[in-house]
Amino acid sequence: MLTLYDAPRCPYCARARIVLAEKDVEYEAIEIDLADRPAWIYEKNATGRVPVIEEDGWVLPESAVIMEYLEERYPEPALLAADPSDRALARLWIFRHDGFTKPYYALRRGEDGALPLFEEQLDRLDATLEARPWLGGAEYGLADVAYVPWVLRARDTVGVPLGGVPAVAAWLERLLERPAVAAEAEIVAAL
Ligand SMILES: N[C@@H](CCC(=O)N[C@@H](CS)C(=O)NCC(=O)O)C(=O)O
User: Fold this and answer.
1) Does ligand 1 lie within 6 Å of residue 63's CB atom?
2) Cα-to-centroid distance, 148 and ligand 1 (Å)
3) Given ligand 1 and candidates 19, 37, 50, 100, which is best to mutate, with the most ligand atoms within 8 Å of its CB?
4) φ, ψ for residue 135, nearest 5 deg
5) Per-residue pLDDT for the chain (191 aa), expressed as one digit of tens each?
6) Å from CA of 167 to ligand 1 middle
């Protein structure tokens, strides 16, 4: 049985939760109190951060690596396209994710000037999603999973309106039709 060291409010954990749900993998979630982390979590991940997964005593931190691992370990349904260029594009979005999350966290911290910087990032997503339905190209997959936890939290917990980015709003609505993403929206609503 796979174990996920998890925290409901953590968007990086949300990536793992969504992929596990999409692939219908049964797992045990162990909730970590981020305000008072147990010392043993450092034995699983030297940074003390979640998510971490564990399978038969083998542990793996880092959400982007966890997503790729789950994709290979549980290939069905596929969340990376068959086409190598679409796979590369999805990985590029994931690799450059900091550009999106840094302004998000600045906004969460209430830093001056953070909102326009975050809106710039939303505009960038919007331009991409006007040109293709999913971040990775023609099919839903890991790139969408990698970004939706922050977009959902930006809308529902920070109160960032998506009216000015209609392609992002439509993408989010399409994502919310998926039970794996709808379950994450319920977690966010309960935060
Ligand atoms: N690069 C890590 C980041 C994970 C991360 O920052 N997790 C946060 C919770 S959302 C955490 O554990 N924070 C505790 C801390 O920074 O001490 C990943 O992608 O998994």
Assistant:
1) yes
2) 16
3) 50
4) -60, -35
5) 999 999 999 999 999 999 999 999 999 999 999 999 999 999 999 999 999 999 999 999 999 999 999 999 999 999 999 999 999 999 999 999 999 999 999 999 999 999 999 999 999 999 999 999 999 999 999 999 999 999 999 999 999 999 999 999 999 999 999 999 999 999 999 99
6) 29
